[in-house]
Amino acid sequence: MLNVVDWGRTNYSDALEQQKALVQQRINGQIGNTLIITEHNPVFTTGMRKNASDHLIWSPEQLENKGIEFLQSNRGGDITYHGPGQIVVYPIVSLLARKDLHAYLRDLELVVIQTLKYFNLETSRRDGQTGIWIENQRKICAIGVAVRSWVTYHGLALNLNPDLSHFNGIVPCGITDGEVTSISMELNNPPSQKMIKSRLAVEFEAVFTIMED
Would you tell me which of 42, 67, 173, 202 could form a disulfide with 83, CB atoms 3.0–4.6 Å apart? Predict the structure, then answer.
């Protein structure tokens, strides 16, 4: 049984510390697989990819003026943005039943593809890059994960209606041959945040039912 918890709006650093605590609880068998849903205050975060911080464009003064934090994270991947209007999902899930991180990433992508298909938005993977795209040109969801003792944390960030101008402050995920989009940009009548959160949980449980150890 998947436990779904909505944290509401959080600071990125606080959410990371809470994730780490939950990971330890999952390793210890104190909790089952858990799906955290949240929305962050504005922040740029870099992953563990070498030279990821080189893809920050804005100066410290610009970041301060726009109220955006800049933090180093321990997830995989390059630099990305989190902010209001973006649905962030952190699965705290044991992979002991299937120790395959590549397959896990593809399953996370499938959750997003199926969720957006439910709302009549066709999306796909892009060869050689983690995340979800529309027409192979517009990125709508970023994915970056970490694993400790085969328990996952970090996860995915799906753009509902964030301030897309904030992505101008970085080279998102280090990608220069595409742009960032959102559900509200792609659909005339986008679903509510509540509807998307609910559907993400449904699709996650459908994809990950085999992962209980």
Answer: 42
Q: Report the predicted TM-score, pTM, of the whole model to 2 decimal places.
A: 0.94
Q: Which CATH superfamily is domain 3-211 in?
A: Bira Bifunctional Protein; Domain 2 (3.30.930.10)
Q: Where in the sequence numbering do the catalytic residues fall? A: 173
Helix (H) or strand (E) holding 45: strand 43-46
> Do β-strands 124-126 and 129-134 pair in parallel, antiparallel, or remain unpaired?
antiparallel
* Interval 98-146: pLDDT, tens: 999 999 999 999 999 999 999 999 999 998 888 999 999 999 999 999 9
d(CA 134, CA 62): 30
Q: What does each C-alpha distance from 12 to 98, 105, 212 come to in angstroms?
A: 29, 21, 28
- Using alpha carbons, select from 112, 203, 108, 183 the residue that is nearest to residue 153: 108
What are the residue boundaries of the structural domains of the chain, listed by start? 3-211
E strand map for 58-173: 69-72, 79-82, 86-92, 124-126, 129-134, 138-148, 151-159
Q: Are 79 and 44 in contact (CB under 8 A)?
A: yes
Q: What are phi and psi of 28, to 5 degrees?
A: -75, -10
Pick from 152, 166, 131: nearest CA to 40: 166
C-alpha 144: how far from chain center: 6
CA distance 132 to 183: 12
**Amino acid residing at 56:** L
